[in-house]
Amino acid sequence: FASGWIDGAGGEGIYPAMVDFDGTSSREELLGMVDAVLQEDDAVRAEAKWADIHRYYHEQAVLLPLYGKRIPTLMNRRLTGYVAGNQQFDYPVHRLRVSSGSKNVTISPGARNGLFHTVGTMNAHVYGPNEFFSNNWVYEGLVAFGAGGKVVPALATSWTVVPNDIGGDTYTFVLRDGVTFHDGAAWDCSVAKLNFDHILAGPLAEAKHGWYGVGTNTEYWFCDEDDNFVIRTNKKHESYLNELALIRPTRMISPSSFVGGASADPLEGNSCHLDWGEVAGTDATETVKCVGIASIAGTGPFKFESKEEADGTTTQVIFKGNADYWDGAPQIETLEVVRYATDRDVKDALLSGDLDLVWGAGVLSDTDILEITNDPTLSETIAVAHSEPIQNALLILNTGAPPLDDINVRKTVIHAIDKGALLAKELPLSRQVDNVFPRGAPYCDLDLSPRWSYDLEKAVLLSCDGEVLTELESLAELESTIGTITEEKETLTTEKATLQAQQEALNKEKAKLQLEKNKLTEEKEKLEGMVSDSQQQIVDLKDEMETLDASSGVVASGYAFAVLLAAISLVL
């Protein structure tokens, strides 16, 4: 990445932003330091030189590290053995163990643009539209990245590096024995040479691979008498081995995969992408004709089996576990890459159990991942893991355009940005970082001073020429007043909630009493009705008695009186 600063061909726009450094510092001096360290052989001296480079650009306040991108993995708990990848799009699925259920595993991988859409032609020697993750499962290089950015053996078991007589280094690789490609072809030095013959043929080195040192600094390559693969560079390049460990373009394909087989002509029938057509360079006199590859076969842990496409979009890709893999056969027998139209579809499939694995950034939102992480029920079936920051996002402050050509303005901007609050709201799964490169990258684990942290008072001091302290005191007084008002508001809100609860309780009690009152009223009205009926009956009986008295005399009168008493007793 830093080598792209030198000529502005890479570095994501950093080169033009460094045009106007403060004081006696200059972009030219910094880039000279980068060029020098890339030619350093000694690791101790390289570490010291990189430390000087990091301090140099840091003091110019031109690059503000914001956050470190971590790679999330969500997997059904029937899978275990998670190990984080060691570079972008490195998803080591072959390390997983199947603790229960089928050994056929479904995955929704993070692609270059988020959700997976296609694996392209899966040609190890070219770039888009191929995907890093699928090429990484199928193909391997001479070396690979291990933990902490360390270069470790892959198809080469060991190597030596010695200075040569053309201004660079000679790399001699001892190749791994007993390795076969997925189609049965043997891995040996002739295959390594064939791959390099095509990757760096004629103008391809400059026109297609000139963005890094392997493309620009590799002079020639051959097999020695011991069948070791030898590469001679025309310039010392400290990151050469690191670049050979990248997922593309120096991964090895089977000799049978070349159009024309092992005798394929690198100029007339090159493995480069068909869409490149014929490639001519500015320095090379040859022209390369691109014909692509005839088949997909590497030495990696998974073999390409098949893919389904609809309307130019890949809907499903099937990989089979490589039972003969030199580093141990994966437990997963079939790996099925499934395409989903939306992140909602991915989440639903994962929670329903139809999807076993989500690996990579841009597939599920931070909100969905946090929901699954924090939900006790969901986390019983879905395990969530994250890599360490593997890539840092930066804010580039252009020193070539006012007002950012003033270093104090750049520092003001830096100290006025509350990275913590920004990440908490927008990117809660990312980590706040202080360095341009991840600390796990080679020569990057160091503390830099001053620390570019959020400090509003410092930002004000840097941006004001007048009565700064008065302004700060007013600001502090205003903040204090706001704090007091906020506390009073919270107290009143609490009291209001208490009163509302009391009012609700009184309303419930009132309703209860009203029901009881209504019940008693009904009972009273019923009793009053009964008394009124009894009184009317007594009046009627008296009338009857008077009638009987008039007609029957004393005996009848006594009899009527007895009947009256009996009636009254019945009523009461």
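Next protein, fold it too.
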Amino acid sequence: KTEIFPLHAIPSANSNFRIMAAFSGGVKLGELDDFIGLSQECVKPLIEAAEGGGAKLDGGMDNLREAAEAPQVQRPNLIKSKKGADPKEATAQVTLSDCLACSGCVTSAETVLLQEQSGEEFLLRAAASPLTVVSISSEARTSLACHLGLSPIAAMQRLAEVLRRLGANYVLEGSAAEALALIEGKAEFVRRYRGKELPLLTSHCPGWTCYAEKVVDPAVLPHLASLRPPQQVQGRLVKTCLLEAHNRRALYRWWRARSPLFPELWWLRSLATGAAPSAPLKASEVYHASVQPCYDRKLEAARPNFELSEGAREVDTVLTTTELLELVRGAGASAVPEVAEGATAADVAAAVRPCSLDGEVFTDLLLGSLAAGRPQPLLCAVQEHAGSGGFLEHVFRAAAAELFNLEADAHLKFERKQNDDMQEVVLKEPASGRVLLKFTAAYGFRNIQNIIRKFGRKTGDCGHFVEVMACPGGCLNGGGQIPLPKVEGTGMLQAERREHLASLDTLLHGGEGTAFMPAEEHPLLPALCRFIVEQNGGKAEGTLVGGNPEVAKWLAAGWRSLRVDDTGKAVTATSVLKW
């Protein structure tokens, strides 16, 4: 619940401007002005039509009210929709899902509506939830490690301890979900290549998918990968697989405390008074927070199609890297009494004892030890170009091997096109030089537009596969990442920014405590895929990892153009767009 104001009337306008600037161009740009005008009405009135004809938008501007009326549709006065004794206390009944469906005020006021996606909300829910899980993405981990002056594994261990003190039960890295997404992404590309359903456009960037659904020609949408982004793959596994492991652990501990087979626990049995174990937790009782490199991930988590069957969200709260840094800084003198109030995040992290790799807090999706069964605690499925998920690198190499029985070069040779964020790599037949595969990386909004224009010509200029990202430089350069400190009176040069991103990419896949492991060899994948197949009522036999239809179905996502209705007819105005 929130009130909707013109941007210039929003309290703390400077902070909202900074947050809004962090959203990608794919979210912010949608053929509309970046402020709330009287002509930009909320979509909610079309769902909850009221009696009495058109609504008049309150604003004290009588000369504009008549123009704001739409007599052909009955529109309630949403901005004052919750009635009370005092008209001034009336507030709008708008959810984030409603706002995501609109191309109007969402571009400026979504930061006001993201109250469920904040550090304050995390502290409240972590304190109240019976089980709190925090997943930290590899891009966010890398930015935090660089800022804190720690190795990736040391940063994760210390952050896990701080988060434990703030209420988290488990802190996870996301390599298993990332590997599963890469494998299913490759399987979909191979299927589409053989079925001549190309090009395949990636769909793991929420800024790009949001823009594609609202603005791009509906003919483009079927070319988006029909796969959940890694954040949602992780969230789905947390609310199902990890939850089952947690419930089993709780039941085992209840039984062990009461079993005569363990005489050393006599003192625990004397304290146990309950005759029956507590009821297993449900997915709705698990609070899952995800730390991500951009603000657009907040919008992704709130999509109504990223929910479990019982209505629980796969990801409840998304915190950006900078927001987690603020939480760590704010833990000084409270959750971390070893340091004084006002200490830096680096001081707070240095003051706590690192979580053990074989303990219970810093763990994996199966609640196993990170100190055994893997070459290093942190795993990366690609050795280069991992900063945006590694989809292009992984799919290119795997497709070359599966489709043509060819091994790609050890270092892929990208050709710069219009700019540094538009690059292309090709696979050629050794004998004839014929191009077999052409993959493109298109980062940033201007390059998205270039791709869409090429797509419209239907000349094949897009190639076979396009990794589309809304942020220039990819996810490592996301709006939620920690920026480099600025020198007074100077700005960061483009070359310096590129050098910084290259160093982050190297740290992501080659930092201390991190090892390269092909996605297909990730130690958790067989167990995770077996769990997914059995969840769908199938039999865990045959091929489980890569190409299993039950796994693909469980991880599938759908993208729908908001420019047309259910019958395929064009929508006449952006104000009537609705998922």
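About the second fold: The CA atoms of residues 204 and 229 lie 4 Å apart.
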